[in-house]
C-alpha cells in the first residue's frame, strides 16, 4: 500500500451516551459527535475507544456506533475506530468492519493477554499488529499503555512496529514523561512518518512541548476546544499562553483522573450532563454511576475551568 495517512492535531475519543435501558442513545450521540467535529483545531474523532465503553459493546453495536459517527461527520473529519479484542483473528475482523464502513484507520488496543509477559516476547506484539495490517490493510494507530500495566511496549518494540507500512501513529498513554520521551525519540529515529499522539492527559502540556504530533483523549470529549488551544499554543512556542490553558484544564484533570481511575469516563459523562451536551450519564455495568457528592465536585471543577457559571 501507499504511505499511510499521517494523523496529527487533537482527536477526541467520543463518549457514548446511553438511554435509561442502556441502549445507545443515537440522538444524543449524534449531537455529541457534531459538537466535537465543530470545535476549531479538532482534526479527527476516535470511535469505539475506552471512552465509549467499548468493552461493553457487541460487534454489531461497534459497527453501529462507528456508522453513526461516520454518517454524522459525513467526510468532514477522519474517524478512527478502536479495535479492542484479546484475539488476533477477532481483531482482524473488527478492523475489516472498520475499513468496510469507511473508517480512516484503526486504533489497535493491546490484548490483555500481553500482561502475562509479552513485554519480553515482542514477537507476539509484532505478529498481532502485522496480521491486522496485512489482512485488513488500513492505517493503524498502535495503543501504547503505561509500562507498569504489563501491556505497554518498550521503545524498541514501538520502533519495530513503526516499520510496519500500515502503522501511521502511536497513541502514547505511557503516563510517565520519561517513558514518553524515550518512546518519542525511538519512533523519530526510525525515520518513518509515524505520528506520536499523546494520551498523557494528566500532563498534556509537557508531552506537547516535547514534540507530540497531537493527542487522542477521552477528556477531549469534554474539552476538545481547550486541548486544541493548548496544542496550538505549544506549536507556536507560546509557553505563557499554553500555561494559561493548562491552568484551566488542571481542575478537571484532578477530578476526572482521581482514584478510582476506573471512574474517569463516568465522571466525564456527568460533566457533559452538567454542560447540557448529553441528557443523562448512564453507564453500563460493571461500571457504576457517580454518587451525588462527586457530581458537585465535578460541577465545581467545571466552574473553576471557566466552562460553567
Overview of the structural elements:
The protein has helices at 26-38, 59-73, 88-101, 122-136, 155-162, 177-189, 204-210, 220-236, 239-256, 264-274, 292-304; strands at residues 9-12, 45-47, 79-83, 105-108, 140-144, 167-172, 195-198, 214-217. The chain contains 11 helices and 8 strands. Helix 5 (155-162) runs parallel beside helix 6. It is an alpha/beta fold and 309 residues long. The chain starts with 8 loop residues before the first strand and ends in a 5-residue tail after the last helix. Strands 1-8-7-6-5-4-3-2 form an 8-stranded parallel beta sheet. The protein has a single domain (9-239), classed as Aldolase class I (TIM Barrel, Alpha-Beta Barrel), CATH 3.20.20.
Amino acid at each position: 500500500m501507499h504511505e499511510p495517512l499521517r494523523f496529527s492535531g487533537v482527536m477526541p475519543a467520543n463518549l457514548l451516551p446511553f438511554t435509561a435501558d442502556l441502549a445507545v442513545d443515537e440522538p444524543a450521540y449524534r449531537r455529541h459527535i457534531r459538537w466535537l467535529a465543530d470545535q476549531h483545531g479538532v482534526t479527527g474523532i476516535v470511535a469505539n475507544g475506552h471512552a465509549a465503553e467499548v468493552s461493553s459493546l457487541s460487534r454489531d453495536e461497534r459497527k453501529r456506533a462507528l456508522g453513526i459517527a461516520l454518517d454524522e461527520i459525513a467526510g468532514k473529519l477522519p474517524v478512527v475506530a478502536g479495535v479492542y479484542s484479546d484475539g488476533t483473528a477477532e481483531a482482524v475482523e473488527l478492523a475489516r468492519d472498520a475499513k468496510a464502513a469507511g473508517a480512516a484507520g484503526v486504533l489497535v488496543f493491546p490484548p490483555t493477554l500481553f500482561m502475562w509477559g509479552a513485554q519480553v516476547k515482542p514477537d507476539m506484539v509484532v505478529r498481532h499488529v502485522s496480521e491486522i495490517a496485512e489482512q485488513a490493510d488500513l492505517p493503524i494507530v498502535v495503543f501504547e499503555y503505561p509500562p507498569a500495566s504489563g501491556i505497554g511496549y518498550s521503545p524498541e518494540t514501538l520502533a519495530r512496529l513503526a516499520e510496519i507500512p500500515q502503522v501511521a501513529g502511536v497513541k502514547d498513554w505511557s503516563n510517565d514523561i520519561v517513558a514518553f520521551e524515550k518512546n518519542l525519540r525511538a519512533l523519530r529515529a526510525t525515520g518513518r512518518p509515524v505520528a506520536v499522539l499523546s494520551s498523557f492527559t494528566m500532563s498534556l502540556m509537557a508531552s506537547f512541548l516535547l514534540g507530540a504530533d497531537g493527542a487522542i483523549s477521552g477528556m477531549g470529549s469534554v474539552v476538545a476546544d481547550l486541548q486544541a488551544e493548548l496544542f496550538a499554543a505549544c506549536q507556536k512556542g507560546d509557553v505563557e499562553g499554553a500555561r494559561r490553558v493548562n491552568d484551566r484544564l488542571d481542575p478537571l484533570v484532578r477530578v476526572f483522573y482521581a482514584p478510582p481511575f476506573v471512574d474517569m469516563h463516568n465522571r466525564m459523562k456527568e460533566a457533559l450532563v452538567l454542560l447540557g451536551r448529553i441528557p443523562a450519564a448512564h453507564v453500563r455495568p460493571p461500571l457504576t454511576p457517580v454518587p451525588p457528592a462527586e457530581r458537585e465536585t465535578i460541577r465545581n471543577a467545571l466552574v473553576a475551568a471557566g466552562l460553567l457559571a
